[in-house]
Amino acid sequence: MSQLSKADIYLDTNRQISPISPLVFSGFAEHMGRCIYEGIYDPQSPHADERGLRSDVLAVLQELNFRSMRYPGGNFLSGYRWLDGVGPRDQRPRRRDLAWKSIETNQFGTNEFIEFCKTINAEPMLAANMGTGTIQDAANLIEYCNAPVGTQFADLRASHGYQEPHGVKYWCLGNEMDGPWQIGHLDAVEYGKKAREAAQMMRWHDSSVQLILCGSSHSEMPTYPEWDRVALELCWEQVNYHSMHYYAGNWDGDTSSYLALSAELEEFVDTLTGVLRYVKAKRRSTHDVYLSWDEWNVWYKDRSGDGQWTEAPHLSEEVYNLEDALVVAQWLNVFLRKSDVVKIACLAQIVNVISPILTTRDALLKHATYYPLLLFSRLAAGVALDVNVIGPTYQTKKFGDMPLLDVSSSYDAANNTQAIFIVNRSQTERLPVELHWQDCTPKSISAAHQLSGTDPKAFNSFENPNRVVATQIAAPALDGQSALLELPPLSFTVIEVML
Ligand code: AHR
After folding, report:
1. pTM above the 0.85 mark?
2. Domain locations in the chain as residue ranges
3. Which residue, by CA, sits nearest to atom 2 of ligand 1?
4. What is the model's pLDDT at position 3?
5. pLDDT under 50 in the chain at which residues?
6. Shortest-distance atom of ligand 1 to CA 247
C-alpha cells in the first residue's frame, strides 16, 4: 500500500463528462432457467396477478426502475421462432430449446412481454433472431410489432388483441453471433452482411427504430476486437449501438484483484471506443454509434446451463456476496465515468438467473447486488462528473498498483442535487476521506447510505435475508466546501448532496 493515509476527492460541477443515459439502468430477461417462468410469469404462485405475472417480482423490478428491458435472449434468441409465442395460448407449440436444453412452453411471448414492460414502465428492447432466423423473419416481426393494421402481420397482431402497434424502438440484431456456442453462429463478415440486410428491411418497415449490432461476447474472445471492426465496417450507417457483453468472477479466489476489476472493464470500453472512432473515420462518416453493454454481471459460481429437457429448470441461480456487490457498484461507476460512450447497459438478468432477486413459489429474496443497483438507479441522474481522486493505492496480482477508492459522481442541475458513489476496496483498512467541492459551497449533505461488512463472502439467504444490506448512515458534517468521512473496509458508500 502507498504511503498516503487519507484520500481526497475533488468535485467540480463544471468538470462534466457527459449526460448519463437513463438506459444504462436497463435489464435483460431471457427464456432461460426460471427467469421468465417462475420468475416473471408464474400463474401458480400465490403472488400471481390476473395475467399470471408475479406481483412481488413486479414490485421489486419497479423499485429498481429498469428503464429498458432486453428480451427474449440471449442464446435462446438464436433458435427462437417468434410466431410460436403469439396468439391463443392453447395453440402455442412446446419446443425443445437447444440453447439451454430445456422445454419451452411458449406461454409467455412478445405480447405478454410488452404488457410486462408497460407494468414496470420499461421501454421494450426486442431482438431479431440472426441464428436460425432469416432477414424475412426479422422484417415480419417488426411488421407485427410496429406497423399499422392493414397488412398480414399487423393484422395478425390485431387478431391477437392489439389493434394499436406496440411501437418498439430498440432492436438487437441477433445475440453473441461471434460465439461458436451460438445456434447458427456466423463469422464476422457473414454476420455483418446478414445484420446489414436485416437492418435495411427493418428500417424500411419503421425508420424510427434504433438498432443494436452484436459486438464481442467477451474481451477474451479470440476474435476480439477484430470482430467488432469488421461487423461495424459493414453496418456502420445502419446501426445506432454496438453491443458488448462481459461476465465477471473471482475465479482464482484472488479478492484483491477481483475488487480492482473496474480497470479491466474500462479497458474493454476504451478499446471498443477506439474501434468506433477508427471505423467512423475510415468511413468518413458523420454518423455516431454508441456502446450498448447489454449483458453484464458477475457470473461464475453457478454456470449450469443444461436444463435436462425440463420446463423452467434451476439454471445459473448465482448467489451474490459482498465482494460481488462491490464489483457491481464499480461497474456502475464505470457506466458513469464512460457515460460519453456507454449509452445502454442491461443487467443480465433480472430474476432468478444470474439475478439480484431469487424466487420460490411464494417468497422472494434480495441478493447483496440488489443494493448498489437500487442506489444508482435512484440517485444517479443528470451528468457524470469527472472526479479527481488522490489517495492510497494497493498491490494486486492482476492489475499492479491500484487506487483503494473507486469513485464516480452525478450532478443533476435541474434539481441541484449531486450523488457521490465510493467503493473502498481495502479488505482491512478504514480510510479517512475528505470531499472537496471546488466550485461551490453545498447547502447540505442530505443523506448517506452504506453497504459494508467484514466478510467478503457474506451473502443473503431465505434464512438470513438481511446479512448484506445497504443502510442509511449518519450524513457527514459539512464544513464550508469540504466534508470528512471515514470509510470502513469492503464498503460502498453513497453521499447525497444539495448544492
Ligand atoms: O445471460 C446468459 C447468457 O450469457 C446469454 O444467453 C448469452 O447471451 C450469454 O452468453
Report:
1. yes
2. 7-14+385-498, 21-379
3. 74
4. 64
5. none
6. 4
Question: Distances from the Cα of 80 to the Cαs of 84, 98, 337, 353, in angstroms?
Answer: 8, 10, 36, 19
Pairing of strands 357-359, 364-366: antiparallel
* Atom of ligand 1 at shortest range from CA of 179: 10
Q: What CATH number matches the domain at 21-379, 3.30.300.20, 3.40.50.1220, 3.20.20.80, 3.90.25.10?
A: 3.20.20.80
Q: Which atom of ligand 1 is nearest to the CA of 175?
A: 8
Ligand 1 surroundings by CB, under 6 angstroms: 30, 32, 73-75, 175-176, 295, 348-349
Q: Are 290 and 345 in contact (CB under 8 A)?
A: no
CA–centroid distance, residue 257 to ligand 1 (Å): 24
Per-residue pLDDT at 238: 97
pLDDT at site 153: 98
**CA 405 – ligand 1 centroid, Å:** 31
Of all atoms in ligand 1, which is nearest to the CA of residue 176? 8
Active-site residue (options: 104, 176, 318, 323) = 176
Report the separation in Å between the CA atom of 143 and the middle of ligand 1, taken as the mean of its atom positions. Answer: 27
Distance (Å, rounded) from C-alpha 141 to C-alpha 383? 36
Are 384 and 409 within 8 A, CB to CB? yes
Q: Whose CA is nearest to atom 9 of ligand 1?
A: 74
Instruction: Take atom 1 of ligand 1 and give the residue whose Cα is closest.
Output: 348
Q: Which is the catalytic residue, given 104, 295, 323, 496? A: 295
Specify the CATH architecture of the domain 7-14+385-498: Sandwich (2.60)
Q: From the centroid of its chain, how far is CA 488? A: 28
Active site annotation includes 295: yes
